[in-house]
């Protein structure tokens, strides 16, 4: 059998194109892996910050032995949980018991797809970005309810029911606040919302145009994160540990990770919706523009945008950590009353006022 030169070149070009496709496929994975690495580092930093801030508030020392200034304490705790025995309840629903933590973690990780960390630095710029986040965040309590039900423990089941009830109570005011922001920005894309706030710089933030919505969003996001004073689903005085009572080892570590991932996502969305995202006046960009260093301008804008976004997010994190270690826990009836009788009417009124102002401006 004789193969001519043309056929050989065709075969080689085909093999090269297939190789390039595989390489391109690997390149597309790199941003996702980079984001996951960044999320992991951020969670470790938040855990360390919470321990240091809580120690300062309570006049304690805090972590100091694992690494310099106790920076490796979170890694040490995660390693310990990784090697702990994974105990399964003998009379529980084992498949649901194992799936519950995974659903909670995956649903929150998907929220990072629509968060613009900097200028042109977002994985998916969707036209319904903010509402996709709300839809995804409502999946996490399903995993908590599954975890509580499958544990065959009345404390765990009560904690799962509380998590579902709390999520429903505060998801509606949260949605009304987001809808008001979408009306002001004429878009539901997270990138468009940030860019709409860049027209007037610092005074263009939605914080000044939506102060009532900002307070409602802040309270509702804390309740969604199940942070004190809203951590009723895992109240140790009443429910031992709630939906995570029967969990141990790495599965318990996943619930621990969920709480901090949820807090990080909420702080980033507060930054995007109300604090202008990455927008801030950067006077020294003109230096690079003067010398026509356009590539340097793009890199600087993206780097500074990420830095500014994270700085604003850490401001919200500091507020939430301080609230956790200063305010007492609410009762369950008080928590539901706050959501249904106060935040829901206020958020609805804020939405009506925003809609009316937008109609008048037309």
UniProtKB/TrEMBL annotation:
The membrane topology term of the UniProt record is: Multi-pass membrane protein
- Which segments cross the bilayer? 23-49, 94-115, 121-147, 168-187, 254-276, 296-323, 335-353
- GO cellular component entries: chloroplast thylakoid membrane; plasma membrane
Picking any one GO biological process from the record gives: aerobic respiration
Please list the reactions this protein catalyses: a plastoquinone + NADH + (n+1) H(+)(in) = a plastoquinol + NAD(+) + n H(+)(out); a plastoquinone + NADPH + (n+1) H(+)(in) = a plastoquinol + NADP(+) + n H(+)(out)
Molecular function terms in GO for this entry?
A: NADH dehydrogenase activity; oxidoreductase activity, acting on NAD(P)H, quinone or similar compound as acceptor; quinone binding
Alphabetized, the UniProt keywords read: Chloroplast, Membrane, NAD, NADP, Plastid, Plastoquinone, Quinone, Thylakoid, Translocase, Transmembrane, Transmembrane helix
**The enzyme's E.C. designation:** 7.1.1.-
Principal cellular location given in the protein's record: membrane
Q: Which InterPro entries match?
A: NADH_UbQ_OxRdtase_su1/FPO, NADH_UbQ_OxRdtase_su1_CS
Task: Tell me where it resides.
Answer: Cell membrane; Membrane; Plastid, Chloroplast thylakoid membrane
Among PANTHER family, the record links this protein to: NADH DEHYDROGENASE SUBUNIT 1, NADH-UBIQUINONE OXIDOREDUCTASE CHAIN 1
Q: How does it assemble?
A: NDH is composed of at least 16 different subunits, 5 of which are encoded in the nucleus.
Function recorded in the entry: NDH shuttles electrons from NAD(P)H:plastoquinone, via FMN and iron-sulfur (Fe-S) centers, to quinones in the photosynthetic chain and possibly in a chloroplast respiratory chain. The immediate electron acceptor for the enzyme in this species is believed to be plastoquinone. Couples the redox reaction to proton translocation, and thus conserves the redox energy in a proton gradient.
> Which NCBIfam families does the record match to this protein?
PRK06076.1-2 (NF004741)
Family stated for the protein in its record: Belongs to the complex I subunit 1 family.
Query: What's the protein name?
Result: NAD(P)H-quinone oxidoreductase subunit 1, chloroplastic
Chain's gene name: ndhA
């Amino acid at each position: 059998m004789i193969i001519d030169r043309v056929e050989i070149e065709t075969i080689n070009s085909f093999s090269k194109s297939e190789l390039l496709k595989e390489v391109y496929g690997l390149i597309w994975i790199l941003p996702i892996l980079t984001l996951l690495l960044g999320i992991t580092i951020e969670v470790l930093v938040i855990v360390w910050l919470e321990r240091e801030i809580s120690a300062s508030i309570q006049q304690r020392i805090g972590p100091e032995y694992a690494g310099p200034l106790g920076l490796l304490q979170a890694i040490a705790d995660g390693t310990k949980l990784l090697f702990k025995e994974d105990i399964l309840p003998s009379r529980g629903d084992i498949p649901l018991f194992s799936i519950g933590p995974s659903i909670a973690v995956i649903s929150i990780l998907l929220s990072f797809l629509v968060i613009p960390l900097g200028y042109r630095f977002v994985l998916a710029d969707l036209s319904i970005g903010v509402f996709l986040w709300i839809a995804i965040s409502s999946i996490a309590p399903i995993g908590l309810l599954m975890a509580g039900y499958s544990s065959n423990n009345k404390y765990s089941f009560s904690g799962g029911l509380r998590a579902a009830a709390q999520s429903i109570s505060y998801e509606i005011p949260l949605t009304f606040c987001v809808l008001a922001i979408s009306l002001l920005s004429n878009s539901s894309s997270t990138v468009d919302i940030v860019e709409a706030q860049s027209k007037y710089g610092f005074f263009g933030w939605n914080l000044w145009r939506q102060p009532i919505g900002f307070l409602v969003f802040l309270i509702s996001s804390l309740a969604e994160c199940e942070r004190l004073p809203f951590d009723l689903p895992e109240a140790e005085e009443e429910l031992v540990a709630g939906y995570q009572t029967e969990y141990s080892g790495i599965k318990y570590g996943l619930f621990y990770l969920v709480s901090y991932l949820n807090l990080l996502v909420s702080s980033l969305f507060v930054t995007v919706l109300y604090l202008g995202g990455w927008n801030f006046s950067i006077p020294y960009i003109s230096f690079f523009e003067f010398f026509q260093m356009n590539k340097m301008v793009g890199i600087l804008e993206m780097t500074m945008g990420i830095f500014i976004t994270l700085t604003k997010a850490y401001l919200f994190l500091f507020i939430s950590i301080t609230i956790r270690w200063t305010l007492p826990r609410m009762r369950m009836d008080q928590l539901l009353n706050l959501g249904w009788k106060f935040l829901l009417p206020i958020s609805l009124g804020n939405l009506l006022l925003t809609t009316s102002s937008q109609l008048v401006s037309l």
